[in-house]
Amino acid sequence: AQSVTQPDIHITVSEGASLELRCNYSYGATPYLFWYVQSPGQGLQLLLKYFSGDTLVQGIKGFEAEFKRSQSSFNLRKPSVHWSDAAEYFCAVGANNAGNMLTFGGGTRLMVKP
Amino acid sequence: ETGVTQSPTHLIKTRGQQVTLRCSSQSGHNTVSWYQQALGQGPQFIFQYYREEENGRGNFPPRFSGLQFPNYSSELNVNALELDDSALYLCASSFPGQADYEQYFGPGTRLTVT
Prior knowledge:
By secondary structure, chain A is an all-beta fold. Chain A has strands at about 5, 10-15, 20, 25, 30-40, 45-50, 55-60, 65-70, 75-80, 85-95, 100-105, 110-114. Chain B is globular and about 40 Å long. In chain B, about 0% of the residues lie in helices and about 50% in strands. In chain B, the strands form two sheets. In chain B, strands 2, 4, 5, 6, 9, 10 and 11 form a seven-stranded mixed sheet that branches. A four-stranded antiparallel sheet of chain B has the order 1-3-8-7, with no helix packed on it. The chains are: A mainly beta, B mainly beta.
């Protein structure tokens, strides 16, 4: 069975600082990987996804993520955080024949200091 | 193009009662997935419907059931409500013909069981 671990429950960064959110997955084959963001009282918005090809993927809002098969990781990065990035971030994995039946991690809550 | 909508926004029920939550898919999407998100946790996959048939199910008991209608709107029914059913229920629509499996999430229904 597939699983996702987000080791950091809370992260606080200063506005303008760089950000890296960690995600480790467990899946027997090449996974479909996703990062979603959830603002308070809202649904999930897709930031980026990886299926195959270039292991560095670019997403919306200046986010990027790198797939590292050897480490079973798919960490999310942003070079300069804005106050509006404060939200909950979820990493998710989908099976390669059912990419839209997702297993989510527990989430990382990002707080941004002015 | 309208997005995914869900109703009601909030709902309070008593243990043992039954509840029906509704989802209207994004235009043109024939697949809908339902997720349960308990407070402070990541979403958990409940089931998926494709062309009015259940297409996959997560680790949820049979008292969680669903329907998808010819217009691709959907219902999630939960019988014999338990306190642990208190959560945000998210639906997501997608079109499996798209290779990227992108799902569009609704804002959710917040269910409180007392």
